Amino acid sequence: MQTGETGRKLELFETLDARGWEPPEPMTRVLELVDRLPSGQKIVMLLHCEPRPLFRILANSGFDHRCRFIPEGYFEISIWHAADTGAASASLD
């Protein structure tokens, strides 16, 4: 779970299961979602590879993320507004 500055859990805005999608569709779709992401909520993206170019775009746009490898063979990327979470207080489910 990610917790905001007030200790509240960030609500799930949307899960984007992009496993098996060909580029650039995963990047395009997640950036469309990020544009609509309300404060206090997060996006969870599932992807077969680590989307390193996305991380730079998110940071430059005022978002934070956490990425972890899932043993079943994919990555889980959580994305939220940087203002919602201090880096030290963020944790994954």
Describe this structure in words.
The protein has 93 residues and is of the alpha+beta class. It has one domain: Translation Initiation Factor IF3 (2-Layer Sandwich), CATH 3.30.110. The chain has helices at 25-36, 52-60, and strands at 11-17, 41-47, 63-70, 74-81. Strand 3 and strand 4 (74-81) form a beta hairpin. Helix content is 23%, strand content 32%. Strands 1-2-4-3 form a four-stranded mixed beta sheet, with helices on one face. The mean pLDDT is 88. The chain is built from two helices and four strands. The radius of gyration is 12 Å and the shape is globular.
Summarize the structure.
With 93 residues, the chain is α+β, with helices and mostly antiparallel strands.
Descriptive terms for the model:
alpha+beta; 2 helices; Translation Initiation Factor IF3; 93 residues
What is the highest CATH level, the class? Alpha Beta
Largest β-sheet summary = 4 strands, mixed
Rg calculated over all Cα atoms:
12 Å
CATH superfamily: TusA-like domain
Strand order of the largest sheet: 1-2-4-3
Task: Give the arrangement of secondary structure elements.
Blueprint: E1 11-17, H1 25-36, E2 41-47, H2 52-60, E3 63-70, E4 74-81
Parallel strand pairs: 1-2
Antiparallel strand pairs: 2-4, 3-4
